[in-house]
Each structure stands twice: as structure tokens, then as C-alpha cells.
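Go through this pair.

…
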Amino acid sequence: MVQPSFQSSKYRVLQRLIDRSATPIWAIDHTGKLVFVSAGLATQLQLDSESLIGRLAVVSGKSPADPLDALVASLAAPVGIEQTRQAWLQVQPANRQRSGKTTIETLFLYLDQAAVSDAGFGASGLAELSSTGHSATGQPDGDVPPVGFPAPAAFWESHRPFVLAIGGFSAAPLPGLDVTLARQLRQQLDAWNQLHHALSNQLCLGRSRSAQRLRRQIEWAVSRRADLLISAQAGCLEESIARDIQVQSTTDEPFVTIDGPLMDAELLDASLTPALHHLLDDPQHLATVLVRGLDETPLEAQAQLWEHLRQSGDRLRLIALTSPDPKMAASEDPALVNDSALNTFDSGTGSTDAIGVLPKIADRFCGPTIVIQPLQERVEDLPLIATAILQQLRVGGECDLDRFSQAAMDAMVLYPWPNNFVELKQAIQHAASKASAASRKSAAVRSIQPDHFPLAIRSYRPSGHPSPEVLKMDLDHEVARFEAALILKTLEQSDGNRAEAARRLSISRARLLRKLETIEQTPALQASDWYQGLTFDGEQSRD
């Protein structure tokens, strides 16, 4: 069934030919509305196509209340399809009227005149895409004739761009798409390396505002020798940024690394000894100390660090790593804190384990704080970063393949990366190793596919349903509730006879009395009325 705007005479022929195929096909217009549903899709969903046409196929954070709206929303195209032009996705229609899950391996094409020209296929190519003729079993249907699309020029004169979704495709549906994507990313990577050859860190890659700001901040830090604060979430490789700044700004300077949370004053002195001796050897000597987790460093160690910084002056540079939004530690002398320190720390909440930064040390960070954004905030940079990591693995002889499939790239873009860049590197190393082993066994494996990634990534599906907080529970409390329910149920079956209940529970009567006393003193356990649903061998449930 098609929307009226698609019902010219030449498109009726197209519709009849598509409807003869069991292949699920649908189209979404530029406003996000579902405008075409093939008979194959309607049959697979066991619904009338007319009931779906005109509904919004757009993913939102909240699942629509109307079951049909929720079903159509699950058919939405992947995010960023306008930029990628094509994407592969395993679609799971949210059909609440049917039990079980249906998965449709789908190729999404963003079709406008430019897309058709860039892809290198015209009317005949589109015809080939729409004449795949897969049956419900996934096998080609030889009875389906080829579908002839009208000439592209005539088509685009009467219609705006839209998304065409064709089910029944494997992860690499179109030969050449992976190569084209890899070629484009490689060209971007080469151009970036030529333009920013001094910035070798992969975190600087990309065109996003976060990437541009990070590059400017690093260039500023390299150009002048000053104390520096780097703020980032876990897994953002912030220490690599600090080391790059150190290498680019000086070559002869000792670089001492300290794990702040593990320090006390005595251990700090011992860790700084090499740098302090170097400074004493010559008044012209310089040194840098990198402190991991400054906002989680004990205040005693921070006070000792500040004393060394004060005695060494500008010759001892401090580079500090903190969690996002570091907070200020309590101080008995507010006069030690200037406006720049207040702006940096006072509004911060820090991590849950953070002690805070001593005001005397916070006062030293007068320049801009380098804030490394999490990978989830830099999705547009991810393809380029991933390509750079893969190229690095190839240079090191750890991978035989030189590209990701479009489906693998889509999977990486979709995944939230809770451990940020560290997790991305580890995932690509895992995928590269697995794909390389597969390519040695079969020449058909030419790119990294979604199946090569760890399970958490290849199986991830975004959901607007229960938040992580809903799934949290206290194990000890739940065990206590079950125990209380079991005791009360057994006592009820024993007609209140505590000795008999203890015998059935295989515990002593004294132990049973202690547990009953605990239940009586704990209102939460007394509220365990769900014990009424418990059944034992040979007993029928009350429900």
C-alpha cells in the first residue's frame, strides 16, 4: 500500500511487482512518515498496510502508547542516514500483538539525485536492489520478475528525498560500499595528518567542536610552560594527552608519574625524589610531575605536594588529572583561592570518591582546563578515530584487514561506549584479531564485520525503556525478604506450631524464634505478603 503521492500509473506497476515478492520493503518520506508498505512486510507483521501508512517512523526516547505507532517507530531509519547515505540494521518490529521477536536484516538507502549519482548506479541498479525477491525462508524467489524503476531524472522531478528500506540483506549488502567508505575515511585521515602532523594523538582526530577545542587547548599547553589541569571521564586516555604535551614542549625534562589516591606525605616524597634531585643539581634544570586523580589524593599528600611546588617555583611543573567537574576541598584560609580557581572548582561536584583539590593547589591552575569529552559526545568523530586505530594495528602487524564494513561502523556509532576510548581500542583490537583469523581461513572475509566485535557491542540495541536505576536491587534485602516469606508460609501451613515449622525448615526451634523476632522488628519484612504465592511439592497454588 502506498500513500496517494506515489500513485502515478508507472508507480502502480512498480507496486504490483514489489507486492508479488515476499521481501519486506518500506519507504519513509522526508518528514519521517511511513509512505509505503509492501505486501511482504504486511504479511510478515500480520497487519493491514493501510493501518500503518501515514504514521511517524521516528525513534524517540519514550515508547508511543499506541501499539501501531510503536510498531512503525521501530521501523525508523538509523540516525545519521542523511550523512551516511546507506546503513545496515537488524530491525526488530515492536509488534505487541504477536508473541516472540521478529528480526529483519535491513538495508536502508537515503535516496535523492545526488545519492544515486554518487553510488554509481542508476535505474538499473535500483531495479537490481528491488528485485532481490527473497521468500519468507530467505531463499531467492525465481518467480519474481525484475523491477524496473523509472529514470532517476523523472523520479526526482516529482518527489523529495526519502529512505528506502529493503529487508533480507546480510551485513555487507552492496559490493563496493565498504571499499568506498574505507577510501573516504582514509582520505580524511591522510588530509588530517598532513594538516595536523604535530598532533599525533588519536583523540584529536575529527571535525567536531570538541575535537577542534581539544586541539587548540593542546597547542596552547605546548606553547607555554605552565601548570595544567586535565579533566575527563574514565577511559578517555587523558594521561596520553599529558605525555604528548610533555614530549612536544620539552625533551630533556624528567617526567614523574604519581598515583594520587595511593599517596601519603612520606610516599609522595619518595616518589618525587628523582625529580627533586634533578632540580638541585642545577638551577637551570626543570622537571614535571603528573598526578593521577588529584581530586582523590589525600589532603595530607596534597599539602606536601604544594610545599614542593612552592619551594621549586616554576621549575617544577604540575600536570594534574581529575574527574569531570572537580570540587574544591575544604579550607580554613579562603584567601588562598583566587577567582580563576573559584571558577574552575567551586561549582564542581566531582566523583563520588573525590576528596577535592586543595585550594592552594587549585590556585596554581590559571590557564584553561583541558576537558576531554566522552566518546558518546563525539559520535561524528568515531569513524575517523576507529580508522586511525585500525591503521595503527595494521602497521604493527596485528591486523591483516584494512577496513570496517558499513554494518560494523554502524554498530560502533550506535554503541554508547561507557569506558570511552579505552573500550573502543580494546574492541577494535578484539575485532581485528578475530577478523584476521577468519580472513586467513576464507578469502571472502575482506573487512571487519559486526560479528567480530565483543558480544556487548554487536548485540547492543538502544531502548527507551527502563533506566538502569529500575534494574538495581539489594541482594541481601531480597534474600531476607524471601527467607521471611518462606518462614511465614511454613508457619501458616503448620497452623502456628513453631516446633513443626522448625522441623519442616530443617532448623532448630531456637533459630526459628530468633528469625521470627527479626521479622517482627523489621516492617519491610512484615510487608512480604507475596509469600502467599509460594507453593511446595504436592501443593496447588492459590492462584
Summary: The mean pLDDT is 76. The two ends are 46 Å apart (CA to CA). Residues 1-117+158-171 form a domain with the Beta-Lactamase fold (CATH 3.30.450.20).
